[in-house]
């Protein structure tokens, strides 16, 4: 169990920001699918190779359950990989100025991101952040914070701690 820092809790992103993150990132997934279709059509028009175009047609004809499973898998991979490689920031989080950190203020590990994103598979998890914390936040011991407010509070605490210390030139 990680040590819980109050400064992390005080600087959590607001629910409206969390909702905006979700909407922006879901829009990115839609753009990914549209781009895949456009690339398939472009390749077909340039090379007369219909391999990707056949995939697009098959995807357009699948049943609703399989569609949800494929979209969920793509969303999982997108969020997991982008948060891991950008150290806690998806496109939505970049736009809203928020970031994922652990409850102890540290950078999440590979396992933290994995637990966080596997937890998203739970039905209605995307709405769970409307409570105190989202389930994927609670189970992975992570939080989405407002970066500017968090860094300002950490800086102020650092400056207060430095008061009275002798500076060596």
Verbal overview:
The chain is mostly helical and 169 residues long. The chain has one domain (6-162). It contains nine helices and two strands; from the N terminus they run αααααβαααβα. The longest helix is centred in the N-terminal third of the chain and has 33 residues, at 15-47.
Regions with little confidence, pLDDT below 50 for 5+ residues: none
* Helical/strand content category: mainly alpha
Biggest beta sheet summary: 2 strands, antiparallel
Quantity of strands, as a count: 2
If helices are DSSP runs of H or I spanning 4 or more residues, what is the number of helices?
A: 9
Q: Give the tally of structural domains.
A: 1
Rounded to the nearest angstrom, the distance between the terminal CA atoms is: 41 Å
Tell me roughly what share of residues is in helical segments.
55-70%
How confident overall, as mean pLDDT? Answer: 88
DSSP strand content: 5-15%
Strand line-up across the major sheet = 1-2
List the defining traits of the structure above.
169 residues, mainly alpha, two-stranded antiparallel sheet, 9 helices, 2 strands, elongated
Secondary structure: elements and pairs:
Elements: H1 6-10, H2 15-47, H3 51-60, H4 64-85, H5 91-96, E1 98-102, H6 110-118, H7 125-128, H8 135-140, E2 142-146, H9 147-162
Antiparallel strand pairs: 1-2
Helix pairs in contact: 2-3, 4-6
Question: Could you write a compact summary of the structure shown?
Answer:
This protein has 169 residues and is mainly α.
């Amino acid at each position: 169990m990680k040590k819980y820092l109050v400064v992390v809790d005080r600087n959590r992103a607001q629910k409206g920001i969390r909702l905006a993150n979700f909407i922006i990132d879901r829009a990115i997934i839609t753009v990914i699918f549209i781009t895949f279709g456009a690339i398939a059509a472009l390749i077909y028009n340039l090379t007369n190779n219909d391999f990707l175009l056949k995939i697009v047609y098959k995807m357009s004809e699948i049943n609703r359950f399989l569609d949800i499973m494929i979209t969920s898998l793509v969303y999982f991979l997108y969020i997991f990989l982008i948060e891991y490689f950008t150290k806690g920031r998806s496109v939505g989080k970049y736009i809203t100025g928020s970031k994922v950190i652990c409850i102890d203020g540290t950078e999440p590990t590979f396992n933290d991101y994995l637990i966080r994103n596997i937890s998203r598979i739970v039905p209605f998890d995307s709405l769970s952040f409307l409570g105190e914390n989202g389930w994927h936040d609670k189970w992975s011991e992570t939080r989405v914070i407002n970066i500017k407010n968090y860094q300002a509070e950490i800086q102020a605490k650092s400056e207060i701690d430095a008061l009275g210390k002798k500076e060596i030139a």
